[in-house]
Write a structure and sequence with these properties.
It contains 3 helices and no strands. It is mostly helical and 82 residues long. The protein has one domain. The chain is globular and about 40 Å long.
């Protein structure tokens, strides 16, 4: 898959977030709790990546995404920590 611009990449990542959430719902119906946790983690991760890119913030790793999210959205109060 070739993504030509940031807006397309943002849409792609957010779409992956929604897909991962849907997968978690299906897995929960079958009691696959470890897999549910994995899919929910990735749903959040993909949504955070989309948010960071939308705001011009690039990262190279999961840890980097978590750090940048904390710095730019939690510590600033844009998103409530709870």
């Amino acid at each position: 898959m070739t993504i030509n611009n940031p807006e397309d990449y943002i849409k792609y990542r957010f779409h992956r977030s929604l897909e991962s959430f849907d997968e978690a719902l299906i897995l929960s119906e079958n009691g696959k709790w470890n897999a549910v946790i994995n899919r929910l983690y990735y749903a959040c991760f993909y949504a955070v990546i989309a948010l960071l890119i939308k705001n011009g913030i690039e990262t190279q790793s999961h840890d980097g995404a978590r750090t940048q999210f904390g710095l730019h959205f939690i510590k600033t109060g844009k998103i409530d920590k709870s």
